[in-house]
Amino acid sequence: MRSQICVLPGDGIGKEVTDQAEKVLRALEKRFGHSFELERALIGGAAIDETGGPLPERTLRACRESDAVLMGAVGGPRWDGAPWEKRPEKGLLDIRKELGLFANLRPAVIFRELAGASLLRPDIVEGGIDLLVVRELTGGVYFGEPKGRDEADGSRSAYNTMRYSEQEIARIARVGFESARKRRGRVCSVDKANVLAVSELWREVVREVAKDYPDVELSHMYVDNAAMQLVRDPTQFDVILTSNLFGDILSDEAASITGSIGLLPSASLSGSGFGLYEPVHGSAPDIEGRNQANPMAMLLSLAMMLRYSLGLEGEAKSVEEAVAAVLKQGFRTRDLAHSGETVAGCSEIGDLVAEGV
Ligand code: IPM
Ligand code: MN
What we know:
Layout: E1 2-10, H1 14-32, E2 35-40, H2 45-51, H3 57-64, E3 68-73, H4 88-98, E4 103-109, H5 122-125, E5 130-136, E6 148-152, E7 155-159, H6 166-181, E8 186-191, H7 197-210, E9 217-222, H8 223-232, E10 239-242, H9 244-257, E11 267-269, E12 275-277, H10 296-308, H11 313-328, H12 346-356
Helix pairs in contact: 1-10, 1-12, 6-7, 8-9, 10-11, 11-12
């Protein structure tokens, strides 16, 4: 099989971790006889430095001409003070919107070998953590209009709008229910319906969509409670279905209870199955260029790409198993290592996984 993949290294550790993904793709070519054509393009701060904006037209075109997109990370202190149009994060929001990537899947799984790395007590994680955050990605307060800043009588104010149409809610709800069907059949929809009008509509529409999925068990939870339940008893969750902002926050929390955000992959999908795959960790500028990043979230994102956009289930499994095997053999990047354990570098982990697929 021949596929075209657009690779967007981005900023910070983005380049180091996408390098490992390329290594593993080359190994998969040999092992399974595929051909992956990789095209690199610019996004985020790297794009701002080269072209003046965080998402050049050329990059969008390269993505549209590809079967899937692999992204590293964007952002860094160098661009933090810049106006919004020249911020790396703007490139990320724009690419999601432009490519219609409304469904963000963020699985949080605890590897048995790493139960000790979780921030939670052993008796809490004993039952195993295996949940999926289904986050709406192209609506809500991230994109709602009006937004802006005013100044009147010498006093500044600023505002955003949390807005969802019923169509936007229904389509992400369907992704949540469909995902639950392939898992343990339970959806917990997270909102703030005791306060927000937009959440009231969210709950209403999710209930309507649920009628098409009588085999899936639906529950609702307020976001403040959900944040607490995630640390109190994460084993109660299967699929967490939620809006853009709540999903952003809860997925970081879910990541940290599994041990390290360096392990959390994500897929951002359009209605047609086209997708952008990226680790949930950011650009980690503090460890950029030191070969200390954990490439596992990136490699697990690559596995999601093989599965969801290229239909290569066997290849996806072989990457996931190779990552698990490397952990089992005791290799740990700095974010996972306990004191006294030997620390492996980013490229070393990449080599080991490439050898293992
Ligand atoms: C994420 C990130 C982004 C988000 C930022 C970088 C714009 O935190 O993908 O979770 O808020 O969506
Ligand atoms: Mn985030």
